[in-house]
Amino acid sequence: VKVEPQPHVVDQTFRFYHPELTFLKKTIRLPPWHTLPGAPVGMPGGEPEMFVRCSDPDIICETKKMGPGEPQDIFLKVAGGPSPQIKKFFVAIYTDAWLAAPVQIWQFYLHSLQRLDVSCMAGQLTHLSLLLRGTLAPRRVRAFTSHPQELEVDPDGAFLLPANGIQDLHIGVRSRRAGSRFIYLNLVDVESHQLVSSWLLCLSCSQPLISKAFEISLPAGGGRGCNKRITYTNPYPSPRLYFLGTNRPDLLQFKEDSFEVAGGEVYTIGLRFAPSQSAGEEEILIHINDHEDKNEETFCVKVLY
């Protein structure tokens, strides 16, 4: 018997990002068996029993037979390795007890990342520092992020990571909206395209205190934007420099992104609202930050289109 193994067809790919050296526990719902390609037709006794097998013997992979008409789930428990390891495995789904031919083959990738919890405020810049450890040889590396609009990296471009040395990577987080979310950060060797380090930033972002609220009406469907003005009073006795930001840069632009105002004086902020194609309402936040990009005040503008 001459055996020639053929590569199998992958029906579906799953990719999970998880903190390093922890267990990933996942439940995945199986589609109804009769919708799977190659499923037997006209089964005697109703629905067939489903069986699953994993290509990695160290992974717990099981499914339980459910009652008629009930959905069936696959349970996975995978031990994650150190960052930036990527674990790859396959899960085969069978409808015959002899496991002769799979009806589906699923491919899984588990990315192990270094977890970093970040508490921040929407619209305010939060500075952090990550420790980079050099490998046996010096490498030219560069940092890439899943949300470049919300995560600043210094150094920004490619830089040299010395062999066996320690270097800081400075990052600045500025989330545009409150709530919990994930941001991925990868450090890549620019010459060999190898992954050197990976981080999972778990953001817990709070809403700043809103000190003033405005409501304006703008025409919907118009091709032209609209200019408005609001005033801000410097509460300090000395001159101050302020920076402006918003959670909706697609709807609001400032005449100037920063301004300086004398102690106790009033400054007029010029606003430019983009036209909206549909009627409705939007809440737009205006962040007024100090010279360190810490939030001094936040205004809320409710726009009725």
From TrEMBL:
Any GO CC annotation of this UniProt entry: non-motile cilium
Superkingdom: Eukaryota
Residue ranges of every copy of the NPHP4 Ig-like domain listed in the record: 14-111, 123-206, 211-305
Example GO BP: protein localization to ciliary transition zone
Protein name (database record): Nephrocystin-4
Organism: Cariama cristata
Source taxonomy: Eukaryota, Metazoa, Chordata, Craniata, Vertebrata
